[in-house]
Amino acid sequence: TTKKMEPTNVLTTPIVQDKDRDAAIEYAKRTIGFPPVRPQKATIKPRIEAEKVSGNTKTTPEILFGLKAAAKKDDDDYEVIWPMKEGRLNLSRLPGDGGRTPSALQSDLSALWSFIIETYARVKPENFSDYRVMLLVPDQFLRKHIRIMVDALLVDLKFDSIFVHQESVCSAFGAGVSTACIVDIGHEKTSITCVDEGISISRSRAYYNYGGKDIQELLCYLLCHSTSYTLDDGTGGKLDPNELVGQSAI
After folding, report:
1. Strands 132-137, 161-166: parallel, antiparallel or unpaired by DSSP?
2. Which one has a higher pLDDT value, 15 or 199?
3. Which residues have CB under 8 Å from 212's CB, separation 6+?
4. For a Cys staple, 152 with which of 40, 110, 111, 236, CB 3.0–4.6 Å?
5. DSSP label of 232
6. Structure-model confidence comparison of residues 250 and 215, the more confident one
7. What is the Cα–Cα distance from 239 to 225, expressed in whole angstroms?
8. CA gap 198, 88 in Å, rounded
9. How far apart are CA 100 and CA 81, in angstroms?
């Protein structure tokens, strides 16, 4: 099943901002209509991430990331939050959808990126101002989503400056070609874009809200419900199809 995409505001030129952070923010305001930037004070709770809502805060972490957070998805003391869904910022307010308000989502992204950069790149948050950032965005996006991500990087994390460009064009040049058909099959979304001489062709863009996770769940379902094939759980028993599909989502 596919969903018809509504027209979106597409940024056709990259944003190149000055070294000075204030000048960079002013440039963003002039070029893509950013509102006045104000530091957010919302409580941070990133992806996959569980927020402590009750219990003894001295013995239980308030925020968990990644697999540790996924392990708490059935714990009533935590709320699981998904800042990204189907390749886009998750601003859905549907019950159980893990969506957030724009200000809370900005805080989620700031905490998530800070954790990843500090853990895997080994860069301390107090040194972020010494670095510049390149932000790759989907070819079809909403301006408010870009605004949230740029605010998180420049205002919350205080990076020196930022360069924003479309991911399809960067993928083509990264492969050493200027003309290509870019097919991105992600975890929850699939996108297709044609690039001609470094220009993303707007009429060639296609977006589908299904990806590798959906294929994996389908294969799990077919294997577990097959009359001629069973999955062993390692102890001689048969795997529960519902449990297996749930694990694939993690």
Report:
1. parallel
2. 199
3. 185, 186, 187
4. 110
5. B
6. 215
7. 11
8. 24
9. 8
